[in-house]
Amino acid sequence: MNFSVHVMVFIIFTVSKAYGVNVSTLLQNSDILQVIGENITLVCAFTPPSRHRTLSWLHVDSNRLITTSDESEGIEPTHEKDISDESKYSLVSDSSSGNLTIRHLGVGDSGIYRCLVATYVDTFSSLIELNVLPPVTASSVLIKDNRSDYTDGESVTLTLGRTHNLTCTVQGARPPPELEWHNPEGVAIGIEDQINTVEGDAYTSRRSIYITLHRHDDEIFLTCVALHRQLDRSISSTIYVEVQVSPTDLLLTSSKEITISTTGTRSVTISEDTVTSFICTSVGSRPTAVISWSVGFDGDPGRTTSTSRTNQDDQSLRDTESSLQLNPKRSHHHQYLRCVANAGMNKRHTELMVMVNGPSDPPILEGTQSLQDGVSSNVTCTANNGYPEPTFQWYLGSKNVTSTSKRQSSLNTYNRFDARSVLTLAPTKDDHGRSIVCLVSQPNDVSIKPQNVNKVLHVLYSPVIVDYSIRRVFNILDSVDVIFTCRSDSRPIASITWFSNGTELNNSALHQIQ
Predict the structure, then answer these.
(1) Can you give 446-492 as a three-state secondary structure string?
(2) Picking from 4-13, 232-241, 269-278, which range would have the lowest pLDDT averaged per residue?
(3) How far apart, in Å, are the Cα atoms of 161 and each of 164, 214, 244, 246, 348?
(4) Nearest to residue 249, comparing CAs of 302, 317, 306, 201?
(5) 62-76, 106-120, 267-281: lowest mean pLDDT where?
(6) pLDDT at 19 (0 to 100)
(7) Same structural domain, 33 and 118
(8) Is residue 346 a part of any domain in this protein?
(9) Same-domain status, 124 and 37
(10) What is the rounded distance in angstroms from the CA atom of residue 398 to the CA atom of residue 278?
(11) Which residues form the domain of 65?
């Protein structure tokens, strides 16, 4: 008996799951324009990294396969092997990227490029567009600083001893020009690296210098040159440098004595409405200084004259002298008299404080009315806005009564003295009608005339009976009338009332009161 045996063999295949690859393309230097004749590098990056890949680039518009890398099994960079035109293209790739460099760009290199990354499982791609632009020549060179723009042949004014920055700028060129600063007179300058930035479809190129000038660097010139491959010759711009010198000193003097306080404040004391001379001298400037004057907020304090001459120590510099005839006003008190010297862009000032002596406001006398006989009262004399501090003297008739007074004073918001004197007075009725005089003077300045104010005293006193009499009068009817007379002294005049046995009497048939 024959038996046949069937054996079933199961073969198990393990299929690895394929994951997608993310591919992206970009320009290696996104801040560089694609210009005819230049080189450009296209980057193809993919993730995750692959040890088994084939990378190639295709110019989609011409359907031309540019280059293909090795089918690599490792992670080290793989240099190009299959290049369609090695004089035109080069490729460097590794496990996560492939960089295609295109040399000597031409118009035909414009278009869409596809990067293809092939693995064992599938092929993945990404697109990038290249737009090759024709060159554009530079048209002009501009030099500028933080104040202005300067065209070829203009002058730039700089200040002695300060560091200045000048920037050479070329706009609208493609590719960027090469900028050079020429310094034929050998002035000490520092040159910074050139900066090229893309603005639209062209470049703006800048190159700056910094310069610290000395006194004898005046009237030098500096040139910025732009070199461009599209130009048969360079273009340039030249500026002439004028070195301005701030006044080396500024002196302010007066026909009156100038004092210096412990805090260092310079001041001069002058009298109101008395013309005083001041002289301000600017020493060693270029250009010639122009001097102006002010006192506080008063920008036109008086008549001025000005002269200038060559500085003795340096013939290239000028000295300027300005004279001010100041007619001091009360509003000038405790304000700074300022002298300002303007020499081109440079300014210097000096100042001193003006103290203006002058009389106070007309004095005011109060408290002279309704005084009481023998009653102590206060009479006040006020004198405000005086400088220096006022003093007071009191007279009652011809008698000096200052000893019974007290003085108070304080500086007001205008830095002048508000002063008052209070006289304590116990008048008698005999003082009625006499004059009380307040004399205000400022002994620290004898040129200020004293001021006085006077008023007549009005003294009140109580009624006093100075006469009382009785007189009998016989009339024709053989009757007798009795006349009672009462006289009083008082201020104001008193009224007299008559009483009989406690009863107030009024005019009647029996009584007549006059």
Answers:
(1) CCCCCEEEEEECCEEEEEEEEEEEEEEEECCCCCEEEEEEEEEEEEC
(2) 4-13
(3) 9, 6, 10, 10, 15
(4) 317
(5) 62-76
(6) 55
(7) yes
(8) yes
(9) yes
(10) 46
(11) 22-130
The count of residues in the chain is 514
Torsion angle in degrees (nearest 10) through CA of 182, 184, 185, 191: 20
Distance CA 168, CA 149 (A): 10
- As for how many domains the chain has, the answer is 5
For residue 404, the cross-strand partners are none
Residues 103 and 90: their CA atoms lie apart, in Å, by 8
Domain endpoint, select from 357, 382, 416: 357
Decide: residue 29, CB within 10 A, 0-12 exposed, 13-18 middle, 19+ buried. exposed
Residues 313-342 have pLDDT tens digits of 988 899 999 999 999 999 999 999 999 999
Count CB atoms within 10 A of the CB of residue 312: 10
390 part of a folded domain: yes
Both 260 and 237 in a single domain?
no
Same domain, 348 and 374: no
Q: Please give the DSSP secondary-structure letter assigned to residue 330.
A: G
| Spatial distance between the Cα atoms of 230 and 257, rounded to a whole number of angstroms | 74
Both tokens assigned to 377: 């009262």
Scan for tokens 């200020």, then name that residue: 448
User: Do residues 285 and 302 share a domain?
Assistant: yes
Residue 6: pLDDT band by 50, 70, 90 thresholds?
A: very low
Q: In this structure, are residues 467 and 485 in contact, taking their beta carbons and an 8 Å threshold?
A: yes
Flag whether 339 is in a domain.
Answer: yes
Q: What is the pLDDT of residues 57-108, one digit of tens each?
A: 889 988 888 876 655 555 555 554 677 788 888 888 888 888 899 999 999 9
Q: What is the mean pLDDT of residues 46-64?
A: 83
- Identify whether 12 is part of a domain: no
> Is residue 354 within 8 Å of residue 258, measured between CB atoms?
no
Residues 259 and 338 in one domain: yes
Question: 283 — phi, psi (to 5°)?
Answer: -110, 125
Residues 447 and 482 in one domain: no
Q: What does the pLDDT look like over 338-365, one tens digit per residue? A: 999 999 889 999 999 999 999 999 999 9
